[in-house]
Amino acid sequence: MKYDFFISYTSEDITIAREINAILTANGYTTFFHEDDTEYGDPVLNKLDKELAASSYVIAICSDAYFKSKYATLEFYSFLNHHLTGNSQEDQSRLIPIKVKECKLDPIANNLTYIDLTKLSTKEDRKRELLEKLERKLEKSNKKLENQIAKNQSDPRVYNFPWSDHTKSETDPYYLQTYTPKDNKLFVSRGINTKPVEEIFTKLDKQETNLIYLQGPSGSGKSSLILAGLIPKLNQEKWEFVYFDFAQDPYKELATGIYLILHNLSLSSLGEDEIKLQIDQLANKLKEEKDELRKQFESIVSLYKGKRILLVADNIDKLYQPNYQEIHPDFLNLLHNSVSKFTSIAIIAICEEKKNESKEKTVRIQGFTNDTITELIKKPAQEKGIEFEQRVIDSIIKDLDTEKQSHNLVLLGAILIQLWDIKKKYELPKITAREYDDIGHVKNALNHLASEIFNKLNAEEKENAERFFLRMVNHIDENKKLINRSIIVGSEEYSSLIDKFSKILRTDKNGKEITVDFFHKKLAESWTMLPEAIKKEHYFSSAKEIEKDAASWYEQKANDKAGPILIFWKYFRSIKKWPPFIAYKKEKEISERCNYLFSQPQQVQDYLSWSVKWSNAFIICIAIILAISGYILNGYRNNGILEESFSNGDKSLFTSSDSNKQRGVNHFKNRNFKQAEDKFKESRNYNKNDPEALIYQNNAFLAWRRKSFSDSESFSISAVISSFLDSIPFSIAAVISSFLDSKLFSIAAIVPIGGNSEVSLEILRGIAHAQDELIKNYEAECAPNNNEKVCQEKFKQLFQVIIIDDGNDKTKAKEIAKHLINKKNEVLAVVGHNVSEVSTEAAIEYQKGGLLMISPTSFALDFKKLDTTYPDRSKKNYIFTATISHDVLANKLADVISNENKKTKILSCYDSTAMDQEAFVRTLEESKKYKFEIIKSLGGEHNQRCDFSKENTNLPQTLDLVNDLINKNKIGAILVAPHVNTIGDSIHLLRSIEKEKVKIYSSPTLFTNQTLLLGEKIVEGITLAVSWIPGSNKSKNACEFEKKAIELWSNDTKESDSENAREFERKAMEPCSNDTKESDSDPRILELNKIGVTWRSVGAYNATRAVIQGFNNDPISPFPTRESLSASLSSKNFILEKGVPDKIEFYNNCQENDKNCAVGKLKASNDDPLLVETKAVEKKQYKVLEFTVVNDKNSSLQKE
Q1: Is residue 352 a contact partner of residue 217, using CB atoms and an 8 Å limit?
Q2: Global pTM?
Q3: Is the pLDDT of residue 400 over 60?
Q4: Which residue among 37, 103, 453, 879 has the highest number of C-beta atoms inside a 10 angstrom radius?
Q5: φ, ψ (nearest 5 deg) of residue 370
Q6: Segment 992-1025, tens digit of pLDDT
Q7: How far is it, in rounded angstroms, from Cα 1098 to Cα 1027?
Q8: What is the mean pLDDT of the chain?
Q9: Which residues lie below 8 Å from residue 1046, measured CB to CB, with a gap of 6+?
Q10: CA pair distance 1007, 995, nearest whole angstrom
Q11: Torsion sign, CA atoms 1012, 1014, 1017, 1022
């Protein structure tokens, strides 16, 4: 070396720097001191770099000013990165920080032993301290330096190779890790793959080609062959080596290797943010500019004149995976074309299969012979004085051949190392077949190796290990194989775990960080714990997608100098995530839960935070555009809803395989109404229990009957209206024309077909029943005299029914309401909607637009919200309900709960988003006079509730927590209150709990034939309050309704001519009687249950009869209007005489102190609900599960 010391300082410390320089030179040391040794005109940076290289040590004069100085720190890091010999810990001893002022040292300088002169006030003290510490340091460092130089002369340096610091055990003969250049002697002594080494060496030496494909199956030792066999052999020929692992991002990996060799840096330097940024920029440049790689190679060749460069491209097969399908052709062509221009650069591409390359460019690793495998097993063991039983060797060879793994050194190594561990553990003199059986032979060797370590961990350690190894899974490929990756983790946090799994991992420690990977990809594919852990982590795939998006964003952001808005646009366009803002909330939740799955968690958090911020701005712009577009397209959208969700006979809204019904629909659509009526009748001969078919049959009859009055002026359609009908969709036109042509009024029957089709049918049975009753009365009165005028007057009292599906969706219901309001001459009343939250939202629109709505099933309609929105509603009301309210139902149930469960805690399992259920549960919860307690919390980590709503995404966990409360006797009963769309979830709950330990109560929603059909014996013992069940009332109205319902919906019993069948049918159809005995009523009640006539059917029947009576109560108007209908139902004199089970009316005014009163609310003579319970009962000819009225043996509802 030219200088002993290079003195690095900043101008603010020039005085003390001169003093130190004078001390050193006075004591015989040579120094480079910038102030003395640089002449004007010298190229400064080149000069400094040259003199740094010519100096044995660098002294850094440390102060705050020094570490803030760009040029001073440049000298410091230049020496650190460019002029060290190899081993970072020993090399750094050549840096000597001298602290001259109190300051915070740079992290790297802080790790070094420094000389502290800050507390010494005299020159003499500083001189003594400086010389004494320097002499002691130089004595140690010179010896280390000599050893390191000698070491480096024998071990070639491979740039960008991360696994170079593995030490081999002196006692264990078998080793699993990839061999490195340091393992050359061990590699040669094993005597395997020597032929391919010579073959490649010859091709390179003779420069036959500068691109060689090394082909061999996974595990055959390809990487070890190059690193431990070829590279040490070439080292004597003055080569430089760069390693690339293309299992990672290929452009970034290429950029990293090029940057390191150009700047003479080790992998440890990659922790610096500035270097990371430069590598990212280079990667992007290589991707975007085709000529950039050639320029980089030119720089390398120029820098290393007289030397040849070998680029080792490992895992080249990864470029053919789906992840890189878009880039691999460009990348491989770029690599090949760039290298071909330089004779001093060669590439060895390591792959499992060659990709259409010539024989001259390919070297293959052949499978190993039985003799070679025998030698690999026996020789290392014999060196340690241990023998293998020959039959063990034979079994291994046979098993490898059976599994087609005779080439797989990794698998063989896993087998042997486990056998050796057993030998050490039990101090065996010989390895026998018993030990081979213990590890599961070849097939299970890798899994056994990893599982044996994993199974020794405690529960907490296993959870940490699962999370750690899941982070090492990059993705699952198209063949469902796990593809692993290397990760960087904190050495302090994970060193204990890594030590435990050291047999299956390879590591590279760099300061406080460790790069970790499986020793071979086969382990990730074979270890059964990994797929099991992935199954347990529900959001694994989502988290990996988020991580991939974050990496894409980071790359775009790092390499794009455009403004943030342009980066935002380019990024989202590149990952095809549109619209970008929808998933961020969910992704943020996933990222917080699955933080351990990310290789760079902070990058993911930055990505999501950035995305949310810019997406909010994006949303505002989109919202403005959508608002304008929505206003323009609103009319078209509403027509689309009608086309799909409305029908008066031109389409079937229920799934049906009945061909006659479909023919009826086609005839109706073509306005062949008589033919349509006939086909719908034929359909009902096939299945009478279809209310949709009956409604369409009656609609077709009315449309056909209208034609007989076509010459009448009052029933003509104007040319203007005809023109309008021609301009809109046919389905809508058919509905409108059928009403306007005849001046028939219509009722909209709005049901939740898309939410619960069975409940929809229950409601439609009540509406169809009322419509059919009216038509039959018309036919009876008109037919005898056949007087046209009389018939016309009677005909005007009839109505058609439009069936509309709102799916129990609030948004759709509001849109339907707005559309119906605008059709003033068509739809005069609405019977619907189903659940209270939907009915309330729609009711606001109906009240505003003046269209009558009677909900047959909403028992918690928010009348308070209506009154707040429309304070004058008591004077002109359009909103009514036709069922008993939630507070009356809940208080009835509370009575029986209080009697059966005094001081008991009752768990409420309900849908928190369903207004009916929430109000029902709240009433029970707030009941002060009862001693039982309603609880909602299940406990658990997040204090979760037993909730059937869509917001509960983990129902299985909910069921586990419910069972836990039951088993610990923390609850005595469960209240089940599901949304009508999710009755199945409540049945699933009942199937999953130990029902014999708790009492089950329910809201009216669970009272449906669907409950009995789905639940069977599971639902036995449920108690609930309802407004009506078959046979519960012996009034004339109730008996006639039940008998007529059986006539309409019961399919004739033709399967048997037995006496029992005929007797059953006779009793079901016999006239009503108040003194009917229990045994006589059984067939009727059983049949009503079987055909699905429930309290919903009664509510719908009463609502429709109320509309009919409201029309008939207006003697003045030739045709009823919405206003007259509202006035009629709101009248104090309005009483529905034909109500079921008896007369009903609606509240038309309320007193201030009557909290339960609401205008339009049902005020029935039977406002006392029924308590019913499901019981299994033996009957004479059959066994049934029935709903039975509590304390009333004469009332029951049964199911076969």
Answers
A1: yes
A2: 0.50
A3: yes
A4: 879
A5: -60, -35
A6: 888 788 999 999 998 887 676 665 677 888 999 9
A7: 9
A8: 78
A9: 1068, 1069, 1084, 1087, 1088, 1091
A10: 18
A11: negative
